[in-house]
Design goal:
Structural class: alpha/beta
Oligomer: single chain
Number of domains: 2
Distance between the termini: 30 Å
Strand content: 25-35%
Radius of gyration: 20 Å
CATH class of the largest domain: Alpha Beta
CATH topology of the largest domain: Dihydrodipicolinate Reductase, domain 2
Length: 332
């Protein structure tokens, strides 16, 4: 399968190397409005063509599928253009900046008969996979509570300017980093959210939120607490899942650990290759979806993540909890 990468930002090398590692996949084109960035990514895939307009890449018939790795608000038009040209689509998280645009992407791919997957990388990172498999084994019993503690840096100047545009990014730290936290918390919690309560802070003169706290009540009674803090004294990326008979923690730097009745054991040691392992697994999943397989991340799950981010903003503005709509009958 000939793959075109649209967007040559920070994670582009992981996408390129994933294609190089998988049989049956070849990255044949890279597109970015910054030609120098596109060329740097293309240099990692000898022979890949370089474009500065995704429509020209599509019209060149150089690819069979695309990875949409662009600013959030650009996901829908680019994914729809690709689908209408008969190309399979892997779109990075968040799927879009509105629920309506999530539905627009899904409808376009369905109408064109092409595969669609959403790149929620947390489902493929080895530390999270090991934790999820441990819980699925039944050793710890049912999940009761989830605590997700994540640091970031949303000081203006620390990242590309588009991250600070509500129109382009959809929001700030909650839309970018919070999408990861909501994704993995829902995945481990095993149910949709019924209610959201959130608070946000805009610091450093940022036009978008830099910090946020989100609490969820899931349909199955699991409680979730998510904290995203910008520029703290210490870095954090720890998902703690409290179960009936023990607690498991997944952290890309510390690995996956479980504690049962006063005793701790290592489930999986961290590895310097873990991020690449995750991106390669994500692309392998996409190839499987193209060939008729079931995606690791259901489209309704990706849509629900966007729904919850938007509900978090409403809750923070109102200063009260916000109910979440039931799943639409059309997407059941």
């Amino acid at each position: 399968m000939r793959i075109g990468l649209i967007g040559a930002g920070a994670v582009a090398p992981f996408h390129v190397r994933a294609a190089a590692e998988l049989a049956g996949a070849e990255l044949t084109a890279v597109c970015d409005i910054d030609e120098a960035s596109a060329r740097r990514a293309a240099d990692l895939a000898p022979g890949a063509r370089v474009f500065t307009d995704h429509r020209r890449m599509i019209d060149a018939h150089a690819v069979d599928a695309v990875i949409v790795n662009t600013p959030h608000a650009l996901h829908p038009p680019m994914a729809v253009d690709a689908a209408q040209a008969g190309l399979h689509v892997l779109v990075e998280k968040p799927m879009a900046t509105s629920v309506e645009d999530c539905d627009r992407i899904a409808a376009a791919c369905a109408a064109a008969g092409v595969a669609l997957a959403v790149g929620h990388i947390q489902h493929h990172l080895p530390d999270k996979v090991a934790a999820h498999e441990l819980i699925a084994s039944g050793e710890l019993g049912a999940v009761r509570l989830i605590r997700d503690n994540r640091s970031t840096d949303y000081r203006p100047g620390t990242r590309s300017p588009w991250f600070f545009s509500r129109e382009v990014a959809g929001g700030g730290a909650l839309f970018n980093i919070g999408a990861h936290c909501l994704d993995r918390s829902l995945w481990f919690g095993g149910a949709r959210a019924l209610e959201v309560s959130a608070s946000v802070a805009n610091r450093f003169g940022s036009p978008v939120e830099t910090d946020g706290i989100v609490r969820l009540r899931l349909e199955n009674g699991v409680g979730v607490a998510i904290a995203i803090v910008s520029d703290p004294p210490t870095r954090a990326d720890t998902l703690a899942v409290v179960c009936e008979r023990g607690t498991v923690e997944a952290d890309p730097r510390a690995g996956t650990l479980v504690r049962i009745d006063g005793a701790t054991r290592m489930v999986r040691e961290p590895s310097p290759d873990d991020i690449q392992i995750g991106f390669t697994a994500q692309l392998a999943d996409f190839l499987d979806v193209v060939h008729g397989g079931t995606p690791a991340v259901p489209l309704e799950h990706a849509r629900h993540v966007v729904e919850l981010i938007l509900a978090s903003y409403r809750s923070a503005q109102a200063g009260a909890a916000t109910a979440v709509s039931p799943i639409p009958a059309a997407t059941r």
